[in-house]
Amino acid sequence: MWLLRLAWKNLWRNRSRTLITVSAVAFATFFSIITGSLKEGVFNNLVKNIVSSYTGHLQVHQKGYQDEQILDNSFKKSALLEGIIENIPETGAVAPRLESFALVSSGELTKGCMVLGIDPEKENKITSVKEKLVNGRYLSLEDRGVLIGAGLAKKMNVSINDELILIGQGYHGSSAAGKMPVRGIVKMGSPQLNDKILFMSLPAAQELFGADSLLSSLIISLDDNTEPSGVAGSIRAVIGDQYEVKTWGEILPEVKQHIETDTNNMRYVQYILYLLISFGIFSTLLIMMVERRFETGMLLALGMSKLRIQWLLITESLFTVMLGSITGILMSIPLVLYFKNQPLRITGEAAKAYERFGFEPIFPASADPMVFLSQGLIVFVIGLILSLYPLYVVMRMHPVMAMKK
Amino acid sequence: MRGKTSEAGIIIRTIRPSWSREMRVKTWLKGTAYSMILVESPPKDKGIVFLKRKNEVWNWIPSIEKVIKLPPSMMSQSWMGTDFTNDDLVKESSMVTDYTHAFAADTVINNRKCYTVIMIPTPEASVVWGKLVVCIDKTDMVQLHVRFYDENNVLINTMNGYEVKLMGGRTIPTRFEMIPADKKNQKTEMIYQYVYFDRPISDGFFTPEKMKTVQ
């Protein structure tokens, strides 16, 4: 106990030295939290962009649909199948979809578009289409109108209540053609989707494509922090091999790879940061030991055992590093929260590159407590490892040599 | 088979490994330049009309009350889900003037003695095929078998004619099947129900306006 008290007193005996060490650790923590939180935030945002705007975490298809995404590979809608999937504990919402392509035309303009027949209420639970509505109203199952992506609406020069003409190929080569009014305009996060998506109610899509009671996919959301591939396995086990279960990573492998590459790049940046942090903290320790050489030598000469001195020094380091880490965490909170609400927006060429991948070009920060804890802990551990240096100095110390001026 | 003009009722069956689909259409042809196809069933597609004028294809879709001119990008796509492409409707090459002909060894198809003719397009002909092998019945002089090769001599499609009988005053095969070479268990069948040859049809019949009212 006296050791703790002595260590605490020692800290404040030379305030400025302690403050310098504390602030070295604090800034180290601060920077590693900011980078860590941006890294987390950016990639979570990418995944969220994809999962919550389009694919869902998992999708169930008729076997073979993934390789040939055509209407002829669709399957009969079955309440039983949906029930079985909903009953798996990790799954959240399940929503049926009929997906296909069509030409959409208004006046003189014709564009290709992606048609998504959705169950409006169920779909909303996964992809929150309703919140993306910028104009007009949301669909109901009985509705025979469409929601159009804001980008597509702009290209087509249409607004609410304008009539669109849809032409495409339906199920088993039948013709698909229909006239449908625009009910609402939706702003999708992904620019790619925004420029070509068209939502309509599931029955309307089934009617248009002559695909009575057929679905091309069931999309499934999972509870947070659930590994999709594990749940995919348990779904596969219960629904039989007539179907295939795909994770979002399998549906969009190029996006998944992009995220993995970028995560690795960010990791190297972080390693370099840790290296810089280590040098920063180490230099303060180095100077401290030079300054306290006489003092430590005298303690030794007075008969204090080396072990006790080492305990004293490690306790001091513990206090300093802990103070530093906590200060760093406290300092980073406001900035992280700011970047979370006001994400960095990328412009220019880089933004275009992101848009090509279908991502929003923004860098939001993640305020996940795990980021603070893990980054704080990493710096704390670095600090503690470096405080082995004073112990080493004490171990090799000879009192007479140390006190010689 | 063609006559100056012809008018026919045809059942078109699209046959795929896991499903098949039947359409009834009515066709009007005049020379190689004009043709009109009216879909009579299934109910969902009823009233859809395709019009071919020279090398243009027009499509009347009653449910949206629109006449659409098919863009070049759609010409190579499947026609109504069958093994025919939109391009197949437009081609107006002449079996006689656009190809050079050579006899190969005779053959027998369904107990009918046939000539085998190898047809190579002339350099100036605008033909998509690199070679055609045609088997022609010796007595009735009708095509019973055609193999379509591309310019690399790879087999693309095979067409077979069956059930040769008298229809519309001529002896013709009344059932055809078109088999794409690269797709297993997949073909399109055409069964003629009636044909009238050489009934006069005016050029004014083959206009986009007429598509909306044709019966």
Could you explain how this protein is built, in words?
- The complex is a heterodimer of chains A (405) and B (215).
- Chain A is α+β, with helices and mostly antiparallel strands and 405 residues long.
- Chain A has 2 domains: 198 residues, no CATH class; 168 residues, no CATH class.
- Chain A has 16 helices and 14 strands.
- In chain A, strand 3 and strand 4 form a beta hairpin.
- In chain A, helix 2 runs antiparallel to helix 10 and helix 10 packs parallel to helix 14.
- In chain B, a hairpin with a 6-residue loop joins strand 12 and strand 13.
- Helices cover 4% and strands 53% of the residues of chain B.
- The relative contact order of chain B is 0.20.
- Chain B has a 13-stranded antiparallel beta sheet.
- The two termini of chain B are 23 Å apart.
- Chain B has one domain: Lipoprotein localisation LolA/LolB/LppX (outer membrane lipoprotein receptor (LolB), chain A).
- Chain B is mainly β.
- Chain B contains 2 helices and 13 strands, in the order E-E-E-E-E-E-H-E-E-E-E-E-E-E-H.
- The model of chain B has no long low-confidence stretch (mean pLDDT 88).
- At the A-B interface, strand 7 and strand 8 of A face loops of B.
Order of helices and strands of chain A: HHEEHEEHEEHEEHEHEEHEHHHHEHEHHH
Number of helices of chain B: 2
> Outline of chain B, from the CA principal axes?
globular
Low-confidence stretches of chain A: none
Helix content of chain B: under 10%
How many distinct beta strands of chain A? 14
The CATH superfamily of chain B bears the name Lipoprotein localisation LolA/LolB/LppX
* Helix percentage range of chain A: 55-70%
Radius of gyration of chain A equals 30 Å
How large is the share of residues in beta strands of chain A? 15-25%
Q: How would the global form of chain A be characterised?
A: elongated
The chain pair forming the largest interface, with residue counts per chain, is:
A-B, 14 and 17 residues
Q: Please, what is the average pLDDT of chain A?
A: 88
